[in-house]
């Protein structure tokens, strides 16, 4: 441990926040391109064009290609030898490919040019291309670029860089007006639930980023209060602040406690008293508690380890420990933004083994030694660990399921209870 | 740049991974950025393997690009060796690493590891997955056996009298289409005629097993895409003949056995064949009569495409209207086959080109890969999968070979299933206004659901993509003719529309009437 780390450790202990162990080595994670798999469904009028290699195309179709698409909403412009050797003008090539995409899909309103490892290593300037193409298709198609390379981004960070690229395009909010901006992809049903709470509390207008149609970007400015629904949005949050928005500090809306705290943060900003929030949420909270009680019976006392994947690990671990009675063995996250996690870290036990980064082989050694009841890990590791007799919960499902809010608290817990129930059921 | 909605093959390092994952006691170190570990999922999820593939990645990130990525390569190799103690280490690069040129193979060779180190050249921007697997297998076989090549002119040892001949099965691999069961089926097949299997590789083999390859009398090249280079080399260096017929389909299986007989000197007709197939009878039974002349489009790797065309034409009585492959390396075999069936060969790895050809030909059945399922969905055409790339549902739990006699049984069921069954097809043609059974409904044996006007979609795609004049210039459809066209069963309607338009155009007919429609029908005989 370096001197700096030791110092930080001492400083952290003083205020009761768990220490962070930094680890480096082989990382078993997705790159940000994987974000396209859910973003293309959320933003229905957008098309994602990755500029990269055959590997990038292969990743996307391995992840999403099990669904059969009549009209795919993403594609890859695969770099050829000619592009690398400088024999072809990459920008001309890109213009040609974009024209082909837009001819096939005239309904597309927003085209994302998505940067990859190869495009970044050869320093292909996609932002210039996006600017130029926006001009060419002016009025019809907005062209936006962002990086989702493995060099720069880990899994859900691909959504961060995508939303971050949309922020400069957002219109300016009218002078003197205010609004709440909820940031981070939420399933439509959850979004609607939150909207109803905000409406009853008298908070509004409420906008969501990303919107369901990229052509309908919400406004932003000095009157905007930002509530992050997802923990992996560091850059987007900073960019929104740059545009004058105020970031509300809150836990993430996972579990009853998190959702209450999250709604309360907005209520505070609108000067709504705690009692009113309690009143408005009482029925939903009671319902969630009833639902959670069943799952708690299955989960209480069980030991759980998290391998790094999505940055959702910390808030979910907090939920499982405080509301489901689970014991946290190790919680690892690919990246820890202390500022965004402030409210969360305070709710975690101060002696928690919290890891940022990964050295997968060493981490697996620890899992094998700890033998937790459940290990949360990616699909590259899940079946191999199952074969070693360890129960696992594959982590990617957590970004593909409605898990936020009161009415999903029991569903979230159930995702972790299910492998245990299944393990007990199977007699073969 | 090439616009790719779906790609038929992964990059070549995936081929190298398939090789490593097929075998035991091998470890592959890949110089690759963070995120390229997605490839592990192909093995743990799509193929449902219970172990991680034997691959370590350097997983470099942007912050490491400024510093010493070469050092990172060396650390990763050393750690992988220390932990897994493989008997051979292979070292390669992914596409991004190829750009930064750390020469990981050369670095590894300079590290003094106590086991053979095989550096792989995998040009990611010009070559693809199967090439990567083929090259890796060849380099491995050559690397391990080079020192055992007999001196030129030395005689091959004769098989002891009475001993059964032995064959190597080369080519089956991890993530290959139905390789697991094909090996079982071919082993049974060979056993039935008195031939033993010596080594199966790469699937399930260790480097030590590869050393035993020369002990066999001949090699069976089951998947030329993976093993043809290695087989050619073994033939040249060790004098082992190669059986080149791939036993997919009844006819091909018979030819395969004759080739084995010729090479080994076994009297095949004298051998009682305990294995048989139901397929020939199923295909001859009257229930299959309606399959006659069904128009089928085939696109796959070359091996499976060529085999499928023969089965379709000779064993099921379909009409092959299109035949293609994404495997350029094997284009010649496919061209020959296309000539046999009188169709234009389609050699391309461009998904959009395949889609355009299917739309143009308007087949009644598409036999292809996972990618053709997207095309078939868009055009509303029944589809069955015959080749990689495939997804999880095509790594089934049940015994599901494509090769040999049981393979033929599996193929019969799989290909006929997506087609509408005979009685339903007749009734839909006769009565068009049924609320439950109608054009827009999926065949009722495939469960509920509608096609969402898929036939119309297919028609409009045919219109748009062929660029033939329809409404604007030249020919137009009279409303009654358009109505009459709708009475033609959906699966041949697209073809009928195109034929009629062609017929009208050739004769300078401006407006297509009901009469024109039937004139065209009489002219084209369908």
TrEMBL record, chain A:
Entry annotated with the keyword Cytoplasm: no
Name a single GO biological process: light-independent bacteriochlorophyll biosynthetic process
Q: Which controlled-vocabulary keywords does the entry list?
A: 4Fe-4S, ATP-binding, Bacteriochlorophyll biosynthesis, Chlorophyll biosynthesis, Iron, Iron-sulfur, Metal-binding, Nucleotide-binding, Oxidoreductase, Photosynthesis
Q: Which residues bind [4Fe-4S] cluster?
A: 31, 56, 117
Q: Which Pfam families match?
A: Oxidored_nitro (PF00148)
At the top level, the lineage of the source is Bacteria
Instruction: Name the catalysed reactions.
Output: chlorophyllide a + oxidized 2[4Fe-4S]-[ferredoxin] + 2 ADP + 2 phosphate = protochlorophyllide a + reduced 2[4Fe-4S]-[ferredoxin] + 2 ATP + 2 H2O
Q: Known HAMAP family for this protein? A: ChlN_BchN (MF_00352)
Matching PANTHER family? LIGHT-INDEPENDENT PROTOCHLOROPHYLLIDE REDUCTASE SUBUNIT N (PTHR39429)
Function, in words: Component of the dark-operative protochlorophyllide reductase (DPOR) that uses Mg-ATP and reduced ferredoxin to reduce ring D of protochlorophyllide (Pchlide) to form chlorophyllide a (Chlide). This reaction is light-independent. The NB-protein (BchN-BchB) is the catalytic component of the complex.
Family membership noted in the UniProt record = Belongs to the BchN/ChlN family.
Protein's name in the database: Light-independent protochlorophyllide reductase subunit N
Originating species:
Imhoffiella purpurea
Its organism's taxonomic lineage begins at:
Bacteria, Pseudomonadati, Pseudomonadota, Gammaproteobacteria, Chromatiales
In the UniProt record, what gene is named as encoding this protein? bchN
From TrEMBL, chain B:
**PANTHER family attached here?**
LIGHT-INDEPENDENT PROTOCHLOROPHYLLIDE REDUCTASE SUBUNIT B
User: InterPro entries of this UniProt entry?
Assistant: ChlB/BchB/BchZ (IPR050152), LI-POR_suB-like_C (IPR013580), Nase/OxRdtase_comp1 (IPR000510), P-CP_red_C (IPR042298), Protochl_reductB (IPR005969), Protochlorophyllide_Rdtase (IPR016209)
Q: What does this protein do?
A: Component of the dark-operative protochlorophyllide reductase (DPOR) that uses Mg-ATP and reduced ferredoxin to reduce ring D of protochlorophyllide (Pchlide) to form chlorophyllide a (Chlide). This reaction is light-independent. The NB-protein (BchN-BchB) is the catalytic component of the complex.
Question: Record-annotated residues binding [4Fe-4S] cluster?
Answer: 36
Pathway terms, separated by semicolons: Porphyrin-containing compound metabolism; bacteriochlorophyll biosynthesis (light-independent)
Any idea of its EC number?
1.3.7.7
Where is the segment annotated Disordered? 440-474
Q: Which residues form the active site?
A: 287
Name the Gene3D superfamilies for this protein: 1.20.89.20, Nitrogenase molybdenum iron protein domain (3.40.50.1980), Proto-chlorophyllide reductase 57 kD subunit B (1.10.8.550)
A Gene Ontology molecular function term of the record: oxidoreductase activity, acting on the CH-CH group of donors, iron-sulfur protein as acceptor
Residue span(s) of domain Light-independent protochlorophyllide reductase subunit B-like C-terminal? 477-521
**Which named protein is this?**
Light-independent protochlorophyllide reductase subunit B
Q: What class of enzyme is it?
A: oxidoreductase
* Keyword Metal-binding attributed: yes
């Amino acid at each position: 441990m370096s001197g700096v780390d030791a110092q930080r450790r001492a400083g952290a202990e003083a205020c009761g926040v768990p220490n962070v162990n930094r680890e480096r080595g082989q990382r078993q994670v997705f790159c940000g391109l994987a974000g396209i798999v859910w973003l293309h469904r959320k933003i229905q009028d957008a098309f994602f064009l990755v500029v990269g290699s055959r590997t990038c195309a292969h990743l996307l179709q391995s992840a999403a290609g099990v669904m059969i698409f009549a009209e795919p909403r993403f594609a890859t412009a695969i770099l050829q030898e000619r592009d690398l050797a400088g024999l072809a003008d990459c920008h001309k090539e890109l213009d040609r490919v974009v024209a082909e995409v837009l001819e096939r899909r005239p309904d597309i309103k927003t085209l994302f040019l998505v940067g990859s490892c190869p495009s970044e290593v050869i320093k292909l300037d996609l932002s210039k291309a996006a600017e130029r193409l926006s001009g060419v298709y002016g009025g019809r198609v907005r062209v936006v670029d962002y990086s989702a390379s493995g060099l720069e981004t880990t899994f859900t960070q691909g959504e961060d860089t995508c939303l971050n690229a949309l922020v400069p395009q957002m219109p300016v909010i009218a002078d003197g007006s205010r609004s709440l901006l909820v940031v981070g992809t939420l399933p439509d049903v959850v979004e609607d639930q939150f909207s109803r709470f905000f409406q009853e509390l008298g908070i509004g207008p409420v906008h969501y980023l990303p919107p369901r149609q990229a052509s309908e970007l919400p406004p932003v400015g000095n009157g905007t209060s930002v509530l992050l629904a997802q923990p992996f949005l560091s850059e987007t949050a900073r960019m929104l602040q740059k545009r004058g928005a105020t970031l509300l500090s809150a836990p993430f809306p996972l579990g009853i406690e998190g959702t209450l705290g999250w709604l309360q943060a907005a209520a505070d900003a609108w000067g709504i008293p705690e009692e009113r929030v309690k009143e408005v949420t009482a029925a939903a909270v009671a319902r969630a508690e009833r639902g959670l009680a069943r799952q708690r019976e299955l989960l209480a006392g069980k030991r759980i380890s998290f391998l790094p994947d999505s940055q959702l690990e910390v808030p979910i671990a907090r939920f499982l420990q405080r509301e489901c009675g689970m014991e946290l063995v190790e919680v690892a996250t690919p990246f820890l933004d202390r500022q965004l996690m402030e409210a969360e870290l305070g709710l975690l036990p101060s002696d928690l083994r919290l890891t940022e980064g990964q050295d997968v082989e060493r981490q697996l050694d620890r899992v094998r030694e700890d033998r937790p009841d459940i290990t949360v890990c990616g699909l590259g590791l899940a079946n191999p660990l199952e074969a070693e007799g360890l129960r696992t919960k594959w982590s990617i499902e957590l970004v593909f399921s409605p898990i936020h809010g009161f009415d999903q608290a029991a569903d979230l817990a159930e995702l972790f209870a299910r492998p245990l129930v299944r393990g007990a059921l199977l007699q073969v | 740049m090439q616009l790719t909605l779906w790609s038929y093959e992964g990059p070549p390092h995936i081929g190298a991974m398939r090789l490593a994952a097929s075998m035991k006691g091998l470890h592959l170190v890949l110089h690759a950025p963070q995120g390229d570990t997605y490839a592990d999922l192909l093995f743990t999820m799509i193929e449902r393997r219970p172990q991680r593939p034997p691959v370590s990645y350097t997983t470099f990130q942007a912050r490491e690009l400024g510093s010493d990525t070469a050092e990172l390569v060396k650390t990763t190799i050393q750690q992988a060796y220390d932990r897994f103690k493989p008997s051979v280490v292979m070292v390669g690069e992914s596409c991004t690493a190829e750009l930064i040129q750390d020469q990981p193979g050369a670095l590894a060779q300079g590290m003094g590891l106590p086991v053979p180190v095989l550096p792989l050249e995998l040009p990611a921007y010009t070559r693809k997955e199967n090439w990567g697997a083929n090259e890796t297998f060849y380099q491995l076989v050559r690397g391990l056996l080079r020192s055992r090549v007999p001196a030129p002119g030395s005689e091959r040892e004769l098989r002891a009298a009475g001993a059964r001949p032995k064959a190597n099965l080369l080519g089956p691999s991890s993530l290959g289409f139905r390789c697991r069961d094909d090996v079982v089926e071919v082993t049974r097949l060979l056993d039935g005629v008195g031939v033993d299997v010596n080594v199966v590789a790469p699937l399930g083999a260790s480097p030590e097993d590869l050393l035993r390859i020369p002990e066999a009398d001949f090699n069976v090249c089951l998947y030329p895409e993976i093993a043809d280079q290695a087989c050619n080399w073994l033939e040249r260096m060790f004098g082992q003949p190669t059986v080149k017929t791939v036993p997919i389909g009844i006819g091909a299986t018979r030819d395969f056995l004759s080739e084995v007989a010729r090479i080994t000197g076994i009297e095949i007709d004298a051998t009682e064949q305990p294995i048989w197939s139901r397929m020939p009878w199923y295909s001859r039974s009257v229930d299959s009569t309606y399959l006659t002349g069904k128009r089928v489009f085939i696109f796959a790797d070359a091996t499976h495409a060529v085999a499928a065309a023969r089965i379709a034409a000779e064993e099921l009585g379909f009409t092959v209207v299109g035949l293609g492959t994404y495997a350029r390396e094997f284009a010649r075999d496919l061209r020959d086959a296309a000539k046999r069936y009188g169709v234009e060969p389609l050699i391309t790895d461009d998904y959009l080109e395949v889609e355009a050809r299917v739309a143009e030909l308007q087949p009644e059945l598409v036999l292809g890969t996972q990618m053709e399922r997207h095309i078939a969905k868009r055009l509303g055409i029944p589809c069955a999968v015959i080749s990689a790339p495939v997804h999880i549902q095509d790594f089934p739990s049940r015994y599901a070979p494509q090769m040999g006699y049981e393979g033929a049984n599996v193929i019969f069921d799989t290909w006929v299933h997506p087609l509408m069954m005979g009685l339903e097809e007749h009734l839909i043609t006769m009565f068009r206004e049924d609320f439950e059974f109608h054009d827009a409904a999926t065949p009722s044996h495939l469960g509920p659901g509608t096609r969402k006007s898929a036939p119309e979609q297919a028609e409009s795609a045919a219109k748009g993509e062929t660029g033939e004049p329809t409404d604007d210039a030249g020919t137009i459809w009279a409303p009654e003719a358009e109505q009459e066209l709708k009475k033609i069963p959906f699966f041949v309607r697209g073809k009928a529309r195109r034929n009629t338009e062609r017929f009208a155009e050739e004769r300078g007919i401006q407006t297509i009437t009901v009469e024109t429609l039937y004139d065209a029908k009489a002219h084209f005989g369908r």
